[in-house]
Amino acid sequence: MSRTLVQPVGQKRLTNVAVVRLRKHGQRFEIACFPNKVLSWRSRVEKDLDEVLQSHTVYSNVSKGVLAKSKDLTKAFGTDDQTKICIEILEKGELQVSGKEREAQLSTQFRDIATIVMEKTINPDTRRPYTITMIERLMHEIHFAVDPNLTSKEQNYSFSEDDDGTVALKVIKKLMENFPIKRAPLRVRFTAPKPSFAGLMEKVAEWNATIISKDLSGTQASIVCEIEPSILRSCEEQLKDVQGRVEVLSVSTHAEGGPSLEQLDNVEVPQPMPAKESNAVAEISETMQKQSISSESQGNAQGKQQRRCKECDVLVEDKLYREHCKSAWHKHNYTRHKNGLPPLSQEECMVEMELADSKKDLKDYDF
């Protein structure tokens, strides 16, 4: 009777590892980290290095457990201190993630950018923001792709009036070229001495600003108005000529209150089918059944090869059976058959699909 000899393993098993890789001086260096801790370290949320690194060891290949040589570390980093090298790799290295993790990260960043775009834009007709679902659909139509090198936090912080090259602003400019969408106006207060009020009004007219209110009671005259965000910096420079200043009251201004009666009248709400139409559908289904029975008898009489579709409960010629299985009618009845529902005729199927599409469009519509 043979016995298996179990040898001790002198190797540290690294499981559930997030690998950070850095190439320097033609060499590859890797460190083993805990999952979901690398991004927390880079965003300065996690400050304890022991909570990020599984070991203060630099590898040339983490999966095989091959350690980096000391002479290679000294040549590449100028030191052989493992902790300092781990910190540099953690800051500058590339995080190796799986496909699902990368997809989830990009999806989260895409959602964050869409949220910023929704907060900063309005519909020019209704002066109301689009829903997040509509913004995401428009971003997919312009084939927008998230930059994986920028985190969501950096993209959120980089969205400002001073930086025109940010991700969200580029998306808004691209959307404005193809769809009815524009930047939400800024609500600001312009203040100037009373002798310079006439010059202030001239500049407000030049900026095509929408005046909300005026206040001439005190020693300083003030005007509350809405302007385009892109001219805020030029307004600050030109107000120096009239000894004025600008104060931002709201970054994005949307229409307040509910929709007007005219907007509700223009919305087409699908009405329920009248009784006559339902009776007509029933009559059509009866005639379709009669035609299927007659076609079955005629097919048997003439000797044509026909096959019965059990999902749609109709007879189809053998040469047309493949095309019938690819039709939307057959696919809809197949779904109903799986759910234990009776089959529908072709006309009933079209009516039901149109009602489903109209309800879906109505759900996505922003009132």
Low-pLDDT ranges? 155-165, 258-278, 291-301
Strand order of the largest sheet: 9-10-8-11
What shape does the CA trace take? flat
Estimated helix fraction? 40-55%
The whole-angstrom Rg is 34 Å
- Hey, roughly how much beta strand do the residues contain? 15-25%
Distance between the termini: 80 Å
**For this entry, what is the oligomeric state of its chains?**
single chain
Taken together, the total number of domains comes to 4
Helical segment tally? Answer: 14
**Main β-sheet, in a few words?**
4 strands, antiparallel
Mean pLDDT: 75
Order of helices and strands: EEHEEHHEHEHHHEEHEEHEHHEEHHH
Number of strands: 13
- The secondary-structure class comes to alpha+beta
Task: Characterize the structure shown.
The protein has about 375 residues and is of the alpha+beta class. The chain folds into 4 domains: about 20-95, 2-Layer Sandwich (Hypothetical 12.0 Kda Protein In Nam8-gar1 Intergenic Region, Chain: A), CATH 3.30.1250; about 100-180, SBDS protein C-terminal domain, subdomain 1 (Arc Repressor Mutant, subunit A); about 185-250, Alpha-Beta Plaits (2-Layer Sandwich); about 280-365, no CATH class. It is about 45% helix and about 15% strand. The strands form 5 sheets. A 4-stranded antiparallel sheet has the order 9-10-8-11. A 3-stranded antiparallel sheet has the order 2-1-5. Strand 3 (about 60) and strand 4 (about 65) form a beta hairpin. The longest helix is centred in the last third of the chain and has 28 residues, at about 275-300. It is flat.
